[in-house]
Amino acid sequence: AGVVNAIGEPTLASMGLGGTTPIGLVQHALEMLHATVGLPWVWSIVAATIAFRTLMFPLIVKSQANAARLNNVKPELEEVQAQLRDLMNSNNAIGKAAASARLQQLYKDNDCHPIKSIIAPLVQVPLFISFFVGLRRMANLPVESFKEGGLFWFTDLTAYDPYFVLPIVCSLTMLASIELGGEAGVSNPQMQHMKTFFRVMCVAMIPLTAQFPAAIFTYWVTSNLFSLGQVSLLKVKAVREYFGIPEMKVHKNLPAQGGFWENMSAGYKNAKEEAYVKHHEKMKRQKEKALGTAPLETTYEHNPRIKH
Fold first, then answer.
1. CB-CB contact of 245 with 65 (8 Å)
2. b/e sequence 284-300, b meaning 16+ C-beta within 10 Å
3. Cα dist from 51 to 75, 163, 243, whole Å
4. Is the model more confident about 307 or about 158?
5. Where is the signal peptide, in residue numbers (predicted)?
C-alpha cells in the first residue's frame, strides 16, 4: 500500500489505521470519499453515514412490519402466553406442549416473531460502534487533515465543541426521534414507560459526551437526523402501504401491562419454558422411536424356539 493518497495526504494504512475489521472498513470508506471523490472530511462522514443507514433501511421496514403484525395479534398472543405462565410450575407436559405449539402457530400464521424485532437494532449497534471507534481513533492519532476538515465553528474535527452546540443538537435530535415512537414504529405502554428513561438519558448525555471530538458528533447528529426523517416517513400511511406495513390496530380491554423489566423477565421466562417444552417433546419422540425399533427385552432364561 502507498503512503500517499490521490490528494497527496498520508494514507490511513500508512498511519496504522484501516484494515479488514468493521472499524477498518468504515475508515476505508471515509478515506475513499475524501481522497477519491474529493469530499472534505466532514462531508465524507455525512455521506458515509447516509450510505450505511440507507443500506439498513430494508431491515427497518421489515422490523416495523413485524412489530405491526405482533401488535395486531396481541390479544391472542397474550391469551396463550398467560396459559403458558399458568402451566410453568405444573407437571402438565402435554398442556405445556399444546400451549407452546399454539404460540408458535400464531407466530407462523401471522408471519411475525419477537426475535425479528431485534434484528435491526442488533445490526445497528455494531455499525454505531464501528463509526464511533473508527472516528475516535482518527481524531486521537490524529489524522492531520482532520484538523481542517470541519466547517462553521467546528473546523477542527479532532477537538471538542467549545460551545457545546454539537452535544446539545445530538441530544435533541435523538429525543425527537424517540418522541415520534422510535424506529420500531410502535407506540405501546412499554414504550411509554421507556420514554421517561430515554428523556433522562438524552439530558444526561450532554455533559457526558461534551468532550467527544467533533468528528464523532458529525456522524452521530447525521445518524439521528436520518432516524428522524426515517421515522417521520414511515408514519405516512401511503408509504406504509407501499412497503406492506400493516395498519396498527388499537386494542381495548387488554390486561394491564407491567413495567419494562417485568416484561423483559416475563419474556425470558416464556422463552425458557418454550425451550423446555420443545426439549421435553424431542426426548419423548426419541424415546417412543427407540421403543418402537429396539429389540424386545429378553424375559426368559432359554429361548423356547431353540432345542437344547
1. yes
2. eeeeeeeeeeeeeeeee
3. 39, 29, 20
4. 158
5. none
